[in-house]
Amino acid sequence: MSTLGSINIDFFVFTLYDPKYLIVSDNSTWLHIIDKPAVIEITIPGSKRIITFSFIQNAINTFNSNNLKLTCPHGDCTEQTYIDLPDGVYTITVKGSPDTYYKTKYHLKTDRINQRLDKILIDLGFDFNDGGKDTNKTRDTILDIQIQLMIAEAYIRKEDVNSAKLYYNTANTALGKLEKCLE
To answer: Which sequence spans correspond to the domains of the chain?
Structure first.
């Protein structure tokens, strides 16, 4: 990111717990480039394709499966029905004009995996203090998964994408095994 003058491109991604949306809030100091176009580039997990949008400065920008071209690959959908966005690491870059003013951040979206954990917790409906062997084992597995996700999020904050992916994938695999055991 260039730091010429006092222009500071900065943004954050909301943690929503709703897998249908990716919401980016602009916190930039645009100064003399406020009237010039800005863009946001988003790469979804598992893809190398960069999707570019006009970026609304000093505002909240919302993305979904249609505008991220998961359900409307040609942008021609009139439906407002969205599918869940994939969990994983998103690469997000906001650029001013000229594009020497930019910032790239990584966001670990965990909405879907958290919904799966929520379902297990609600479906089991047990008291963690009941002391049963199976209850304790399930509780420990859930806690291990949550710790793996916490570690993945810590690595994202440090911009270590590979480690974040490793811990996320470990949590996802463990959750899949737990779901099979509980079927």
So the answer is: 11-109, 111-182
